[in-house]
Design brief:
Blueprint lengths: L1 H11 L5 H31 L12 H14 L4 H12 L2 H11 L17 H11 L3 E5 L5 H15 L5 E6 L16 E5 L2 H7 L4 E6 L5 H11 L3 E9 L7 H8 L3 E6 L11 E6 L1
Parallel strand pairs: 1-2, 1-4, 2-3, 4-5
Antiparallel strand pairs: 5-7, 6-7
Bound molecules: S-adenosylmethionine.
């Protein structure tokens, strides 16, 4: 039947009425393969999740392998070493327990999911574990999922003899809810406008994560502000690189390498963000 349809299609391809004839087939096929599954995920998510922004999800297995291999290539490490870091945070019971325990008293728990899914932040963790930064700056802390992930990396780096400090920035005075307890020993949030905080920050930055105001101009301004504070081997991660090309442009201007790593959420309607990774 399928081959008959295909043969008929080949015969009709050259006629001007073909687009009208082909439309229902295109509609059916794209619904079945793309729109339907996404709509199904969206409907399930509406009821299963409470999140209304900064969505959280698992990554697909193939995305995870692609990310591990990409990070390993970029940092010139073995796949197994980077995979170990992915496994480390993904199976970190202390991290999981910390987030779940705090969620119970979270003033925003009715718009926040209990299960702490870190998505692309697993790459932030692996980069921090691999490069052992002395100073990490993350602009845009929000509830503090990234902050805790990065401080978990600093905690293990400290155990390995490579201590480091985390500085978050956020304009929201309530940001950083999850950055408490043992994780807060490794860093704190600088409240106020990120550019102002970065301007007064008197530190040499080894790992910079941009995730605050996601307008292109603001993102660019952050890179310009930290340009002369970056350590020679500093890595810059852009959480807005699926939206703008500002980190790529900054990297070209500064003679740095740039790659874009795409995120692929599992069983989620969100198409995924990406990670811009800029390195010397
Ligand atoms: C996408 S969220 C950050 C998510 C966080 N990095 C994480 O891992 O979950 C963006 C945050 O940027 C903050 N923000 C927006 N504009 C800002 C500004 N001009 N200065 C500092 N923070 C800002 C918002 O308050 C918000 O908490």
């Amino acid at each position: 039947m399928k081959s008959l349809l295909r043969a008929a299609k080949r015969q009709l391809l050259a006629y001007p009425f073909f687009p009208a004839l082909n439309l229902p087939f295109r509609a059916f096929d794209t619904w079945r393969r793309y729109i339907g599954p996404t709509t199904g995920n969206w409907l399930r998510w509406l009821f299963a999740s409470r999140a209304d922004s900064n969505f959280t999800y698992h990554l697909t297995d193939r995305c995870r392998v692609n990310l591990i291999a990409s990070v390993a290539s970029l940092l010139a490490k073995d796949f197994t070493e980077i995979e170990r870091y992915f496994n480390e945070i993904e199976s970190d019971n202390a991290f999981d327990a910390h987030m779940r325990a705090l969620w119970r008293s979270h003033p925003e728990r009715y718009r926040t999911d209990e299960t702490p899914l870190i998505g692309r932040r697993v790459v932030w963790y692996a980069v921090a574990r691999t490069t052992k930064p002395k100073v990490i700056v993350e602009t845009g802390v929000d509830q503090g999922i990234g902050a805790v992930v990065l401080c978990a990396a600093l905690a293990r780096n400290t155990d390995d003899g490579h201590p480091g400090r985390y500085f978050g920035t956020d304009i929201n005075p309530n940001a950083g809810f999850y950055l408490k307890g043992d994780y807060a020993k490794f860093g704190s949030v600088l409240y106020g406008d990120s550019i102002s905080s970065l301007t007064t920050l008197n530190e040499t930055i080894d790992l910079f994560v941009n995730d605050s105001d996601h307008s292109a101009d603001y993102e660019e301004a952050e890179y310009r502000t930290v340009a002369n504070k970056l350590a020679p081997a500093a890595i810059v991660l852009g959480d807005n690189s699926h939206v703008t090309s500002k980190l790529a442009e900054f990297s070209v201007r500064e003679g740095r390498k740039f790659v874009f790593l795409a995120e692929e959420p599992r069983d989620h309607w969100y198409r995924g963000a990406g990670i811009g990774l800029s390195l010397p």
